Amino acid sequence: MSLKSDLHRHVASLRRYALVLTRDAVAADDLVQETLVKAIAKADTFHTGTDLRPWLFRIMHNTHISELRRARTRSDAGMDLPDPIARECQHTELELKQVLGALDQLPEAQRKPIILIALREMSYAEAARALDVPLGTFMSRLGRGREALRKIVQGVGAGKLAVLKRKEGGE
């Protein structure tokens, strides 16, 4: 009996093992097919008189491990790529850029309270302590900063913001 004709006797057990390895019928069939292709291609390395079954199972196991490594490498490489921006996200991203740009235009005394509350999620008392100002002063700066931010985002413009800054003494 030749190696190629003897392979048929082991297909059912190879498929059962492939199902255990992959836990997916389609993937198991693919793994069996790949194993048989490799076995036929490397038939000259099989030593006549030795048991064919362990040799086939070793080929299958190594093929499965190689495929897992390839899949992991592909997924790791894909993790470095940025996700494409969906159209519905573009509007949100644009708004975020506008708000961050407007935040940069605020005087530091107004910008810091907004950042501590909105981005760092501090309580008013914690933020006032972090800035080393009385709570009332903190609340006043926060209120003025929020109002100025709203006006910038709504398009009041930099000219009126400059007037606001002068009125507040640069706070």
Q: Which helices and strands appear, and what pairs or packs with what?
A:
Elements: H1 3-7, H2 11-22, H3 25-41, H4 52-79, H5 87-105, H6 108-119, H7 124-131, H8 135-153, H9 158-167
Helix pairs in contact: 2-3, 2-4, 3-4, 6-7, 6-8, 7-8
Structure in a nutshell:
By secondary structure, the chain is an all-alpha fold. 76% of the residues lie in helices and 0% in strands.
Indicate the CATH class of the largest domain. Mainly Alpha
- Distance from N terminus to C terminus (CA atoms, Å) equals 93 Å
CATH topology of the largest domain, which one? Arc Repressor Mutant, subunit A
Uncertain segments are: none
Q: What is the CATH superfamily label of the largest domain?
A: Winged helix-like DNA-binding domain superfamily/Winged helix DNA-binding domain
* CATH architectural category of the largest domain: Orthogonal Bundle
Domain count: the total is 2
What structural category do the secondary elements indicate?
A: mainly alpha
Report the major sheet. Answer: none
Helix content: over 70%
Overall pLDDT score: 80
N-to-C SSE string, H for helix and E for strand = HHHHHHHHH
Radius of gyration, Cα only, in angstroms? Answer: 34 Å
Q: Sum up the overall morphology in one term.
A: rod-shaped
Quaternary organisation of the protein chains: single chain
Number of helices: 9
**Count of extended strands:** 0
Strand content: under 5%
